């Protein structure tokens, strides 16, 4: 994917031919009149923005940053990126709401909540307290949060003997992100199992939150600080011959695309890090193409619905996870929805919860109709949202791949 330099993103508005394709594809504009759509809020509004002043158009806060518009625009207008930059301008001028500050701090929340689990999970389940939080902060009381895991993924990795195995010539630095570390260590464990099964030497080095939650909540300065930290921590490993592989399509997209395209990071090591970062299924597909993947899967029949999250599609490497699922023997029904609605932390916000639920409704209907045993999806927030709206278990494709090597559920 060719990424224009950050300063040129607003200028891509000049490429717009007003065809309206983006507006027909925008999942948010489809379900609410509060958002006039990508063309109006993106390239059209951009022409009236003083480059030195933030946008006066607050409706752009209803853009969920799903990226569908940028994907479908036939003229390469970087609409979602343009909106993200304009939103950050508004936040800078008006001040960042406490809620946005908090929702951007997934790493801090994990550090505070995980050591006290399971007790730290209790307040989120007390309805009157949730109502109070909704009233004070604007986080919808209906939004379900994942539960903190007492054992972090990093803690597990440090103490497990498998983590000490140094096998194979290929080297991977696993980027776990906040969700795997503090909420779903099982996904990191499955990733390590799959990589080590393929004779790959895996390390889990120092890293920070990718910064995407801050970026999408309009806090660019903090997101840049996190991005710079990551570049500083990751670049030496790339020089040592490691590639960075992540299981969260959002984290890897942040490193590969957003640091440069949206945050405008100027760092001599950025290119080194971005060009050596891969989503885990992108990486496994590359291994397979080179004939280096262990393909001794135990085939199992199960019907699943696979939802490719928007962040996954923005990577632009197809849907290898769905292809792998078929090879494991699964009947794969691909989601027809462009977006499940939650868009990171968008759906957690009081004024956006109903919009996000309406965006996701076609997917929830499809899942209800297909009646799969499980849903498979590469993005954590999407999985949690889908689970809470359908009652179906949602898993990461790497968990299913670890199962396929063993011939049974994890
Ligand atoms: S799809 Fe692209 S060219 Fe068409 S209206 Fe939207 S921004 Fe303009
Ligand atoms: S990023 Fe998504 S919600 Fe925002 S304008 Fe584009 S398609 Fe619509
Ligand atoms: S919620 Fe999922 S499907 Fe929707 S914007 Fe995010 S990544 Fe995309």
Report on the architecture of this protein.
By secondary structure, this protein is α/β, with parallel strands linked by helices. Helix content is 48%, strand content 8%. It contains 21 helices and eight strands. It has helices spanning 21-25, 27-31, 38-46, 68-72, 79-94, 98-103, 106-113, 127-137, 153-159, 177-183, 185-197, 212-216, 220-239, 249-261, 270-274, 280-289, 310-315, 320-327, 353-370, 380-390, 397-406; strands spanning 170-175, 200-203, 243-246, 277-279, 303-307, 331-334, 374-377, 393-395. The strands form two sheets. It has a four-stranded parallel beta sheet, sandwiched between helices. Strand 7 (374-377), helix 20 and strand 8 form a beta-alpha-beta unit. Helix 9 packs across helix 11 (185-197). The chain is globular, with a radius of gyration of 21 Å. The model has no long low-confidence stretch (mean pLDDT 91).
Biggest sheet architecture: 4 strands, parallel
Strand order of the largest sheet: 2-1-3-4
The gross shape turns out to be: globular
Low-confidence stretches: none
Mean pLDDT: 91
User: How many β-strands, per DSSP?
Assistant: 8
Query: What distance separates the N and C termini?
Result: 35 Å
* Helix count from the secondary structure assignment: 21
Q: Give helix and strand order, one letter per element, not per position.
A: HHHHHHHHHEHHEHHEHHEHEHHEHEHEH
Bin the helical content: 40-55%
Strand residue content: 5-15%
Name the ligand types: iron/sulfur cluster
Return Rg in Å. Answer: 21 Å
Helix/strand/pairing category: alpha/beta
């Amino acid at each position: 994917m060719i990424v224009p330099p950050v300063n040129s993103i607003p200028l891509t508005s000049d490429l717009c031919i007003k065809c309206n394709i983006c507006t027909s594809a925008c999942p948010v504009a489809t379900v609410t009149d509060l958002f006039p759509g990508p063309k109006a809020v993106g390239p059209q509004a951009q022409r009236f923005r003083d480059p030195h002043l933030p946008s006066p158009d607050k409706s752009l806060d209803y853009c969920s940053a799903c990226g569908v518009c940028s994907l479908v625009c036939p003229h390469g207008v970087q609409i979602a990126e343009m909106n993200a930059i304009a939103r950050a301008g508004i936040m800078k001028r008006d001040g960042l709401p406490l809620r946005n500050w908090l929702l951007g701090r997934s790493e801090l929340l994990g550090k505070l909540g995980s050591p006290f689990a399971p007790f730290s999970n209790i307040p989120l389940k007390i309805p009157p307290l949730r109502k109070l939080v909704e009233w004070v902060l604007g986080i919808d009381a209906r939004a379900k949060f994942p539960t903190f895991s007492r054992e972090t993924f990093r803690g597990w990795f440090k103490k497990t003997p498998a983590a000490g195995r140094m096998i194979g010539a290929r080297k991977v630095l696993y980027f776990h992100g906040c969700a795997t570390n503090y909420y779903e260590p099982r996904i990191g464990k499955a990733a390590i199992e799959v990589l080590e099964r393929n004779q790959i030497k895996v390390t889990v080095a120092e890293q920070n939150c990718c910064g995407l939650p801050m970026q999408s909540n309009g806090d660019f300065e903090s997101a840049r600080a996190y991005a710079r930290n990551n570049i500083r921590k990751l670049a030496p490993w790339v020089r040592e011959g490691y590639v960075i592989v992540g299981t969260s399509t959002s984290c890897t997209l942040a490193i590969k695309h957003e640091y440069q395209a949206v945050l405008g990071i100027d760092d001599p090591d950025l290119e080194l890090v971005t060009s050596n970062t891969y989503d885990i299924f992108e990486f496994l597909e590359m291994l397979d193409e080179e004939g280096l993947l262990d393909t001794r899967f135990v085939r199992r029949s199960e019907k699943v619905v696979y939802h490719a999250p928007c962040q996954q599609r923005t990577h632009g490497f197809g849907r290898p996870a769905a292809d792998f699922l078929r090879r494991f023997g699964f009947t794969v029904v691909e989601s027809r929805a462009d977006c499940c609605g939650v868009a990171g932390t968008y759906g957690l916000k009081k004024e956006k919860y109903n919009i996000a639920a309406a965006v996701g409704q076609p997917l929830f209907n499809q899942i209800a109709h297909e009646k799969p045993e499980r849903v498979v999806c590469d993005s954590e927030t999407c999985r949690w949202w889908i689970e809470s709206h359908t009652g179906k278990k949602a898993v990461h494709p790497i968990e299913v791949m670890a199962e396929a090597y063993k011939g049974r559920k994890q």
